[in-house]
Amino acid sequence: MKHAATIRLVLGDQLNPHHFWFDQVDASVVYVLMEIRQETDTVSHHIQKVAAFFAAMRAFAETLRAGGHRVNYLTLDDPSNRQEFIGNLRDIISREGAQRIEYQLPDEWRLDQLLSQLDQHLPVSVHAVDSAHFLTARGDLADHFRGKKRFLMESFYRAMRKRHGILMADGAPTGGRWNFDQDNRNRYDGKVPIPPPKSFGNDVSGIIDMVHRAGVTTIGTADPEDFTWPVNREQSLALLTYFVDHLLPGFGTYQDAMTTTSWSLFHSRLSFSLNTKMISPQEVLTAAVASLEKGTAGIGQVEGFVRQILGWREYVRGIYWAQMPGYASLNHFGHRAALPSYYWTGDTRMACMRQAVTQSLRYAYAHHIQRLMVTGNFALLAGIAPDAVDAWYLGIYIDAVQWVEIVNTRGMSQFADGGMVATKPYISSAGYIHRMSDYCKGCRYDHRKRSEDAACPFNSLYWAFLNRHRALLKNNPRMGMMYRTWERMSAQDRRAALARADRYLADVEAL
Ligand code: FAD
Ligand code: SF4
C-alpha cells in the first residue's frame, strides 16, 4: 500500500463531512480517527453517549472511505490501540513514514494544549486549521466585551443578529422586538399534543458490548428502544426537519415547561448533532428562519430558538475561550458538599429530582429547565462542590462536551464564576417548579410548606442559601426583593425555616 505523507487527525466531535479538508481526494493524506481510553475515562460517561460518539465516528469514517479518502480507524478493542493520542500517532507516523500532522482546532482546552504541543513529542511538523463550524472565532466574544466586567448575553446576541442579518428587517429586529420571552415560558397545559421524540432505531449493541468488555466505567442504561440518537449527517438532517415541521411551532411557548408526560417536549434534541458537527449552526438557523417565512412557525417561537443557537451557544463558547483554564476551578460560594447518590440512581423522594435524574439515566437527556432549575438548582441550594456538579453534567448528557457544559454548569447554574454569565444565581423555591411543571402533585413533599414535616426541601434550602450567602449577594440589585421578603418574615418563621434546612442538609441522602 502507498504511504501517506500527511496525517489528518479527526476528533470525535469533528464529524463535518463538508469541512474543506474533504473537498479533494488526496492519496498522500490519511485520515485518522481513534476510540481511546484517554477520552472515555475523563469522567464516567453515559453508556449512550459513548456508544453514540463511537457509532457516529464509525459512520463518518465510512462516509470518508466511500468518498475515496484513505482512513485509518482504531477501534477501542484493536490490540494495537495504545489508548492515547500520542502513542497511536507515533505508531501511524512510523508505519506511514508521514512527515506532517494536521488537525482541526479542538473545542476543548485540554486537547488544545495537547495538540498544540504535539511537535514536542513527535518527529513531524504540526499544523492546525479551523474547524469551520462556528459563527464566531474563538476570540470574538472577548473583543466584544473588552473592558467590561460583565458579559451580558443579550448585548452579544443583538450584535450577532445584526452581524449575520438574522431575523433583521431594515436594520430593526423582525417583529419589532429583540426578545419574545415575555410571550413564551408557559406551563404545559396539555392543549397542544406533544409529538413523540423522533428515534432512528440505530443498533449500537455491538459497541456497547465492546465498551463493557473493555471495562470502561459508564452510567445510565441503553435499552434499544431508548437509544434515539442520530449517528450520521442524514439522520441529523432528518431530526432537524422533524423539529422544524413538528416541534418548532410549540418551541418558544413551552421552552421552560416541564411535564411527566414527555421527556423532551418541544425541544429539538439537536445538541448531539450540533456538538459533533454533523450539522452546522448556520443550517439549523436557516431552517428555523425559513419556517417563519413559510408561516409554519411564529416569530416568538423562531426567535426563541434562534436565541439559543446564535446567542447562547456562541456566547458560552466565547466565554470558555476567554476564561479557560481558570474557569474550571472557580468556586464563588466555597461549596464543598458531596453529590448525593440519587444523582446516579434517581432514588429520591423529591419527585422533580426523581423525574429529571431518571430520564437522564434512561435517555442521556434532560432539557434546559430540568438541568437548570431542578438538578442544578438543588445542587446549588445544597452547597455541592462545583467540581462534582461539573463531573456529573459532563458525564450524563449526550451533548456534554466541556466547552458548553462547563460554562452552563459552573457559570449559569452554579454561579461559581461570581456572576460573569448570570446576573444572579438561578435558584428557586418550590414555587417555580410547581408553576412550570406537574411534578409536585406526585411528590411526597408539600410544595406549600416551608418548615413543617414533609415541607418541600427546595423551600427551606432556598431561604437558608440566601441567609448563608448574604455577604456575597446583598449588594446584587437583582437579589434585593428576595432579601426584603426574607426580612419581612417573622423571626420565628425565619428560625423555623433555617432549622428545617439544617435538618435536611444534615442528611441530604435521605431526601
Ligand atoms: P433545544 O432546547 O432544542 O435548544 C436548541 C439548541 O440551542 C441546543 O441544541 C443547543 O445547541 C443550543 N442551546 C440551548 N441552550 C443553550 C445553552 N444554555 N448553552 C449553549 N447552547 C444552548 N448544552 C450542551 O450542548 N452541552 C452540555 O453539556 C450542556 N450542559 C448544560 C448544563 C447545564 C447545567 C445547563 C443548565 C445547560 C446545559 N446545556 C448544555 C445547555 C442546554 O441545556 C442544552 O443545549 C439543551 O438542553 C440541549 O437540548 P436540545 O438540543 O433539545 O435543545
Ligand atoms: Fe420538587 Fe418540592 Fe415539588 Fe416535590 S414538592 S416535586 S421536591 S418542588
What does this structure look like?
With 511 residues, the chain is an alpha/beta fold. It has three domains: 6-129, HUPs (Rossmann fold); 140-212 and 222-323, Serine Threonine Protein Phosphatase 5, Tetratricopeptide repeat (Alpha Horseshoe), CATH 1.25.40.80; 342-510, Orthogonal Bundle (DNA Cyclobutane Dipyrimidine Photolyase, subunit A, domain 3). It has helices at 37-40, 47-66, 85-96, 109-116, 140-144, 153-164, 205-213, 233-251, 271-275, 281-294, 299-323, 342-345, 351-363, 368-381, 386-396, 402-413, 430-436, 457-468, 470-473, 480-488, 491-506, and strands spanning 6-9, 29-34, 45-46, 70-74, 100-104, 125-129, 168-169, 172-173, 218-219. The strands form three sheets. Strands 4-2-1-5-6 form a five-stranded parallel β-sheet, sandwiched between helices. α6 crosses α11 (299-323), α8 (233-251) crosses α10 (281-294) and α8 crosses α11 (299-323). The longest helix is centred in the middle third of the chain and has 25 residues, at 299-323. The protein is globular and about 80 Å long. It starts with 5 loop residues before the first strand and ends in a 5-residue tail after the last helix. The model has no long low-confidence stretch (mean pLDDT 96). Bound molecules: flavin-adenine dinucleotide (FAD) and iron/sulfur cluster. Flavin-adenine dinucleotide (FAD) is lined by residues 267-271, 274-275, 308-309, 312-313, 316, 367-368, 371-372, 376, 393, 397, 399-400, 404-405, 408-409, 412-413.
